[in-house]
């Protein structure tokens, strides 16, 4: 009898010893402690949640720009969560830790995926939507289909109608070129430091920048093919349809932005004639990172009018 009990205990210990590393590995493989995944069709969207502190004020969906991920919103999410907002930071397809697209997939608009994610978490009319750069263009399209409380556009970059470019953008030559850039050039710290400096116009901030948080996702297998696939099917920004967005809009631009042209800024301004505007004095394109405290104050004031 004693031997049987010892055998059962030994088996249990062995199973537990096997299970613990398995669970630890699964947790370790999550990109961040606050990582979540949403599945829709052939897509798996990675998103992070930073819950509010103190009195609840609302929920914000943050959409990043080209070459970026949920990481670009870390500082803003920390600031806004401290002000009472639940912050959701999504990785668009082909960026961060979301699905990389291939021509063999059933391709879906990234706007649809963001809409489905938002509605899986909470119903319409309960969301505040924020987009940076390319993510601003996505946010404009999303806001035409999902009834949001307010829309915030940070250095928004409208996406033009490129026509059917799938043949050219998905060619082996194009994929190879993009793959070389993201897999190899992003490993050269000096190059990436220069890129960050140009994007922030902030030398002190650039010195201690966490390059790996940006470069690691870009070096993942399938990123080049995914981006080339995206370029052939991405939805252009419906600036005419923006007239149907009836919620308050905040437009933020940066004085030293080297990415967004005056023409692009004017397109966004013309699409929202009644918008509130704010200029980040001395700020660069990714001012949402190094000027997060300032912009969180601006956003808070806008959201509480």
Note down, in words, how this protein is organized.
The protein is of the alpha/beta class. The chain has a domain at 34-161 and 236-303: Rossmann fold. It contains 13 helices and eight strands. The protein has helices spanning 2-28, 74-82, 110-121, 134-142, 166-169, 172-183, 189-200, 203-207, 211-218, 223-233, 262-271, 287-290, 292-303; strands spanning 35-40, 43-50, 58-63, 85-90, 127-132, 150-154, 249-254, 276-280. The protein has an eight-stranded mixed β-sheet with strand order 1-2-4-3-5-6-7-8, with helices on both faces. Helix 4 links the parallel strand 5 and strand 6. Helix 2 packs across helix 13, helix 3 (110-121) crosses helix 4 (134-142) and helix 6 (172-183) crosses helix 10. The longest helix is centred in the first third of the chain and has 27 residues, at 2-28. Residues 1-28 have low confidence and may be disordered.
Topology of this protein?
Elements: H1 2-28, E1 35-40, E2 43-50, E3 58-63, H2 74-82, E4 85-90, H3 110-121, E5 127-132, H4 134-142, E6 150-154, H5 166-169, H6 172-183, H7 189-200, H8 203-207, H9 211-218, H10 223-233, E7 249-254, H11 262-271, E8 276-280, H12 287-290, H13 292-303
Parallel strand pairs: 3-4, 3-5, 5-6, 6-7, 7-8
Antiparallel strand pairs: 1-2, 2-4
């Amino acid at each position: 009898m004693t031997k049987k009990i010892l055998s059962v205990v030994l088996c249990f210990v062995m199973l537990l010893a096997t299970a613990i590393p398995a669970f630890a590995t699964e947790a370790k493989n999550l990109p961040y402690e606050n990582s979540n995944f949403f599945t829709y069709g052939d897509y798996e969207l990675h998103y992070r949640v930073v819950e509010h502190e103190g009195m609840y004020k609302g929920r914000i969906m943050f959409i990043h720009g080209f070459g970026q991920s949920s990481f670009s919103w870390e500082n803003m999410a920390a600031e806004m969560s401290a002000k009472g907002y639940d912050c959701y930071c999504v990785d668009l397809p082909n960026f961060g830790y979301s699905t990389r697209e291939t021509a063999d997939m059933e391709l879906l608009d990234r706007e649809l995926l963001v809409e489905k994610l938002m509605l899986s978490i909470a119903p319409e009319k309960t969301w505040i939507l924020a987009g940076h750069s390319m993510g601003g263009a996505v946010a404009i399209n999303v806001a035409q289909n999902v009834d949001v409380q307010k829309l915030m556009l940070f250095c928004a970059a409208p996406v033009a109608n490129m026509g059917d470019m799938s043949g050219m953008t998905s060619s082996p030559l194009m994929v190879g070129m993009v793959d070389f850039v993201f897999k190899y050039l992003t490993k050269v710290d000096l190059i990436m430091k220069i890129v960050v400096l140009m994007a922030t116009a902030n030398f002190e901030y650039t010195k201690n920048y966490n390059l790996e948080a940006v470069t690691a996702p870009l070096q993942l297998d399938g990123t080049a093919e995914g981006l080339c696939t995206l370029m052939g099917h991405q939805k252009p920004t419906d600036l005419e349809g923006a007239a149907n967005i009836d919620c308050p809009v905040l437009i933020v631009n940066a004085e030293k932005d080297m990415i967004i042209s005056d023409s692009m800024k004017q397109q966004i301004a013309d699409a929202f004639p009644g918008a509130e505007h704010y200029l980040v004095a001395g700020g660069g394109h990714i001012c949402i990172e190094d000027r997060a405290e300032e912009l969180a104050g601006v956003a808070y004031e806008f959201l509480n009018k």
